[in-house]
From TrEMBL:
<feature type="transmembrane region" description="Helical">
    <location>
        <begin position="105"/>
        <end position="126"/>
    </location>
</feature>
<keyword id="KW-1003">Cell membrane</keyword>
<dbReference type="GO" id="GO:0055085">
    <property type="term" value="P:transmembrane transport"/>
</dbReference>
<keyword id="KW-1133">Transmembrane helix</keyword>
<keyword id="KW-0812">Transmembrane</keyword>
<dbReference type="InterPro" id="IPR035906">
    <property type="entry name" value="MetI-like_sf"/>
</dbReference>
<dbReference type="Pfam" id="PF00528">
    <property type="entry name" value="BPD_transp_1"/>
</dbReference>
<keyword id="KW-0472">Membrane</keyword>
<feature type="transmembrane region" description="Helical">
    <location>
        <begin position="244"/>
        <end position="262"/>
    </location>
</feature>
<feature type="transmembrane region" description="Helical">
    <location>
        <begin position="12"/>
        <end position="31"/>
    </location>
</feature>
<protein>
    <submittedName>
        <fullName>ABC transporter permease</fullName>
    </submittedName>
</protein>
<feature type="transmembrane region" description="Helical">
    <location>
        <begin position="74"/>
        <end position="96"/>
    </location>
</feature>
<comment type="similarity">
    <text>Belongs to the binding-protein-dependent transport system permease family.</text>
</comment>
<keyword id="KW-0813">Transport</keyword>
<feature type="transmembrane region" description="Helical">
    <location>
        <begin position="138"/>
        <end position="161"/>
    </location>
</feature>
<dbReference type="InterPro" id="IPR000515">
    <property type="entry name" value="MetI-like"/>
</dbReference>
<dbReference type="GO" id="GO:0005886">
    <property type="term" value="C:plasma membrane"/>
</dbReference>
Length: 277
């Protein structure tokens, strides 16, 4: 019994150290974004700046065209997520809840595509995009993002839907519900944790994607946020990192907000799929 308080204290200590390793880079990024060049090089690891330069954010926003880039990225992300959520939910329902020949093979094929890194398909994908006149088009990003994001999304949703008791559908069928009613009125509300997991994972992936955007988008007016950040090297030179970090803070906020909003459903979706999938 005496060892239990010691175990609790040790666990709290380890979790506190782990939390600091996560929080310190974020606080350091915020601190650098508010410093000037002299303060940054004089005290590189300090979090609190000697003088708070909020103008770094306004300059990063206007000169770096962060607003326009975030708008392009938001459009690509929202449209991609809509297609991924609809397609992955319907496909996962069929793979998890309907018995048919070849469903294990189909799921295996989806999972196998997850092993292919995006760098392998960049060259053939670029040639396809060019032949379809999708270069310098946001749809040239949306369509590949949908194809790349579906396999992992279907894998997660299939595992989650398998954790939902089949008795719920059987009782609804006895009450007269048809297949469409089972899909949209019974299973869809129960799938919110799994769909939230898919949305958060795909949101972070699309928001931070760089290689495909680099070869598809050449028009400055269509740049996504990662391309805008890479352009700061040319705008401010090699040594002016303060405005770059200010832009990083701005572009990180939507990701943090997204996780805070869906964190409960995200954790519930991961644990349900892991424990019962």
């Amino acid at each position: 019994m005496k060892a239990k308080p010691l175990y609790v204290m040790l666990r709290i200590l380890l979790l506190s150290v782990f939390s600091l390793t996560i929080l310190y880079p974020l606080l350091w990024m915020l601190g650098v974004s508010l410093k000037d060049q002299k303060d940054m090089f004089a005290r590189p690891w300090s979090i609190v700046p000697q003088e708070f330069l909020w103008t770094n954010f306004s300059k990063a926003w206007t000169v770096g065209k962060i607003g326009q880039s975030m708008g392009n990225t938001a459009f690509v992300t929202v449209v991609t997520l809509l297609f991924i959520v609809v397609f992955c939910y319907l496909a996962s329902y069929a793979l998890a809840r309907i018995e048919f020949r070849g469903r294990k093979l189909i799921l295996t094929l989806f999972i196998s595509t997850m092993l292919l890194p995006i760098q392998i398909i960049l060259i053939p994908l670029y040639r396809i995009q060019k032949s379809l006149h999708l270069i310098d088009s946001l749809w040239g990003l949306i369509l590949p993002y949908i194809a790349i994001g579906l396999p992992i999304s279907i894998f997660l949703m299939t595992a989650f839907l398998r954790s939902v008791p089949f008795e719920l559908e059987e009782s609804a069928s006895i009450d007269g519900a048809n297949r469409l009613q089972l899909i949209y009125k019974i299973m869809l509300p129960l799938s919110r944790p799994g769909l939230a997991t898919v949305v958060i994972l795909q949101f972070m992936t699309i928001w931070n994607e760089f290689p495909l955007a680099l070869i598809v988008i050449n028009n400055p007016e269509l740049r996504t946020i990662t391309l805008a950040l890479s352009n700061f090297k040319g705008l401010w030179g090699m040594m002016d990192f303060n405005k770059l970090f200010a832009a990083l803070v701005i572009t990180t906020l939507p990701v943090i907000a997204m996780f805070i909003i869906f964190q409960r459903q995200f954790i519930s979706g991961l644990t349900s799929g892991a424990l019962k999938g």
